[in-house]
Amino acid sequence: MTKPILHQWEISPFCQKVAKALQHKGIAYEVVNYNGVLGSKVPRLSKVGKLPVLDIDGQRIQDSTRIARYLDELFPDAPRLYPEQTLAKTQVEIWEDWSDEYLYWYEVYFRVNDDVALAHAVQISTMGRPAYERKLLKPLLKTALSAQLYMQGLGRMAKTDVEAEFFRHLDRLESVLTLSTWLVGEQRTIADIAVATQLNEMLRTSVPMRAAITKRQKLMHWLSRV
Prior knowledge:
By secondary structure, the chain is of the alpha+beta class.
C-alpha cells in the first residue's frame, strides 16, 4: 500500500483529529496543506467539498469520523480507535459526537472573538495571496463565522454566558479525568483524540482560553498524553 495522503487545512481541529488518529494507529502518512491559494482546489477533492480528505488504499474518504472508522476496518490489528465492546464503543462515539458537533462551536466562537486567533486564521487562509487580501478577508471571515454562530446559538448569547458555560465543560472534563486516565476505558481512543484536538486549537490560537485550560492540571496532563 502506498503512503496515505492527508489533505488538510492546517488550523482545522478535524484535520488534526485525523492526523492524531493516523499516528495512534502507527501509520506513516504525507500531508498536503490547502492554505491560501491552494484552498481553491478543495472542492475538487470530494462531493462535500470540505477537509479533511484522506487518500488511502485506493480510496478517497472525507469527514474525520468516517476516516477514523475506516482506519479501524483497514487496520484492525493496530491500536484501535473505537473499542470492540459495545457499551464502551457507544460511550466513545458519544464523546466524539459531543466534541465534533458541540465543543467545536466554542472553538469557532473564541476564534472569531479573539483578535489574535482571528488574525492567525486570516494569515493562513491568505497564504500566498497579496497582502491587501488579508485586510479584505478578515471582516468577511468574521462576518461569515459570526453568522454561523448566530444560527447555531452561541452567537446569540452574552460573552460572559458563553465563557461561563465553556468553563463548566472544562470543569466536567477535569472531574472525569480525576477518576480516569482516559475519557473511556483504559486506553486512548478517538474520544480522547477528538476532544483534545478541539482544545489544542484553542490553546494554540486563543490567549484568554489558554489561561483557562492550562490552570486545570488533570486536563493539561491528559492533553500532554493525548
